[in-house]
Design brief:
The protein starts with a helix and ends with a helix. The protein is of the alpha/beta class and 243 residues long. The chain has a 7-stranded parallel sheet with strand order 4-3-2-1-5-6-7, with helices on both faces. The longest helix has 31 residues. It has one domain: 3-Layer(aba) Sandwich (Rossmann fold), CATH 3.40.50.450. Strand 2, helix 4 and strand 3 form a beta-alpha-beta unit. Helix 3 runs parallel beside helix 4. The protein is built from 9 helices and 7 strands, in the order H-H-E-H-E-H-E-E-H-E-H-E-H-E-H-H. Helices cover 49% and strands 13% of the residues.
């Protein structure tokens, strides 16, 4: 039966459809709130943690896979929970390395029509319907970002972190790009275009560290925190509360 046949003749069908749409939007808002609450409660115990990003399309035989797994294992053995997107490729490598280590392997999975499927190397697995809720959790619980080679999704996470830190919406954490050859073109463009056109400040590039050495990643993170603890200060906690 069509909607028009269900509606009395003296009732405007447009108003009924509008009301139904508003009701659906209200329920969607409640679902988003529930997603934030559930994820926050679930992940509260994993700190300190490091978020690792990278392509879902990299196969296990690729050198980047082995490098990601090695970095994740070193971070896990150093006492960091390792957070990835929970999917295949370099996300799987990150979870796999952490899963073999001393600290929890965490997957923040996303429901997608195609590409994404959860990998089996997760001690803690949290599934999201909404990208933006998932992105908040990557930032909220991370003491550092390790960014491996990747595509649009990886770039999205990198730019999100840089923007939040640059604008003071998130505390400053190490953002470590792994792979000097891979990232060289992007960093050159930052310098030659964004800085020269005064779209960002030259000092904004200091937010990024670059390495080819997987053994240096843990060292770089500890160096950042050597004069302070991993726990956010009250001011930093307040800023993150308003993410």
């Amino acid at each position: 039966m069509s909607l028009a046949k269900k509606i009395p003749a003296n009732v405007d069908p447009g108003r009924v459809q509008h009301s139904a749409h508003n009701a659906r939007e209200a329920w969607r808002t409640l679902e988003i709130m529930a997603e934030f609450v559930e994820a926050t409660e679930r992940l509260e115990s994993i700190q300190p943690a490091v978020s690792i990003f990278g392509s879902a399309r990299i196969r296990p035989e690729h050198p980047w896979y082995a490098m990601t797994e090695r970095i994740a294992r070193a971070l896990s053995d150093a006492g960091f929970s390792v957070i990835s997107g929970g999917g295949p490729g370099l996300m799987e490598a990150a979870n796999r390395g952490a899963y073999a280590g001393r600290s929890p392997s965490v997957g923040l999975n996303i429901v997608l029509q195609h590409e994404q499927s959860g990998n089996p190397f997760q001690d803690v697995s949290q599934t999201f319907q909404h990208f933006f809720a998932r992105k908040v959790m990557f930032v909220k619980f991370a003491s550092a970002y390790v960014v491996m080679p990747g595509g649009f999704g990886t770039l999205d996470e990198l730019m999100e972190a840089l923007t939040l830190i640059q604008t003071g919406k998130s505390r400053r954490i190490p953002i470590i790009l792994v792979g000097t050859t891979f990232w060289a073109g992007l960093l050159d463009w930052f310098r030659s275009t964004l800085v020269s056109e005064r779209l960002i400040g030259a000092e904004d590039l200091d937010l990024i560290e670059l390495t080819d050495d997987p053994d240096r990643v843990v060292e770089m993170i500890f160096r950042h925190y050597e004069t302070r603890g991993f726990e956010p200060s009250p001011a930093e906690r307040e800023a993150q509360f308003n993410l």
